[in-house]
Amino acid sequence: MQSTLFLIPSIFLILLLFPSLIIAAEVTKLYPVEDGVTLLYDGEQQDDWASARNYQGAFSRAPEMNTENLAVRSDSQSGFYRIYRTSLVFDTSILPDNALIESVAMYLYKYPFANNHAETDLVLTSHARNVNQPLRQEDWYLQNFTTEFSRGLLQDGQLTKYIFNNDGLNYVNLADRTAIGVMTEFDFDDITQGSSPTGGSFYAMESTDENLRPYLEITYTVLQTEKTLSEYVMELETYIASLVDKSVRNSYMAHVKKVIGLHEVGSYTEALEQIAALDKKIERDGARGEISEEQLVRLRLVVAEIRVILEENSLE
After folding, report:
1. If DSSP states are collapsed to H, E and C, what string results for the chain?
2. Model pTM?
3. What is the CATH number of domain 26-222?
4. Which among 63, 161, 185, 223 is placed 20 to 30 Å from 120, CA to CA?
């Protein structure tokens, strides 16, 4: 499960709604803690595009790690399909628990010697894998790469910047590591190019030149205030009371009451679970239009501060 705060629609909206907050902007540059390529190769003898793309049999080659470059590919130039999918893992848990992600960009430096074709965009995606274990052959499966964050063509002789969309910002995991997948546009879009070569490659984390290594650049803000938990709970209850939908109000208040009760008896872990569940409900209701954007911002900002206090209490 991803644990992240949400994309703020506008920092100016935050200042308007919470003028007493201190906004501290930070930029963090993260290099991968692991990277590698999973491969469908000639040995699988897949000559049908759909079967190859959705392959889940035995693999003739293990994932390639500790290499100078990372490649993606999706063509049958050799007579059988070769489909390469790449994974990079970043330790995003070093970001503050109350960080509000403003922007994310990945920088990749084109590898000049192999698997680069001028008309192939790279697509950066979510990657469902165990981020704390080495890359496995099964991590290649198509269903592990579901949501597009960015796409573009690798540029010659320079770092190519891939700017993440809102899905990418919300995907960043503040509680653990974050895995990013990379594949060809044809693989992601399910468009076969047959035997026409399609692919791209870029320098890996193992490059001896730090200037060529891939990295994430994350811009975030931290909200700093001196309010107590009780003050935040009162503020949250006030916002909830202003909601029009009675069923939404009652649902939110049920979670708040549980948080208060659990905190009073020192059950901080359970209180955190309740505030996380409330956060999920608020996010869902905002996506459905059941609460306004302003209400969404107000509620989730206060919930985020309550969560930080509970996490601090749990460590004492």
Report:
1. CCCCCCCCCCHHHHHHHCCCCEEEEEEEEECCCEEEEEEECHHHCCCCHHHHHCCCCCCCCCCEECCCEEEEEEECCCCCCEEEEEEEEECHHHCCCCEEEEEEEEEEEECCCCCCCCCCCEEEEECCCCCCCCCCHHHHCHHHCCCEEEEECCCCCCEEEEECCHHHHHHCCCCCCEEEEEEEHHHHHCCCCCCCCCEEEEECCCCCCHHHCCEEEEEEEEEECCCCHHHHHHHHHHHHHCCCCHHHHHHHHHHHHHHHHHHHCCCHHHHHHHHHHHHHHHHHHHHHCCCCHHHHHHHHHHHHHHHHHHHHHHHC
2. 0.69
3. 2.60.120
4. 63
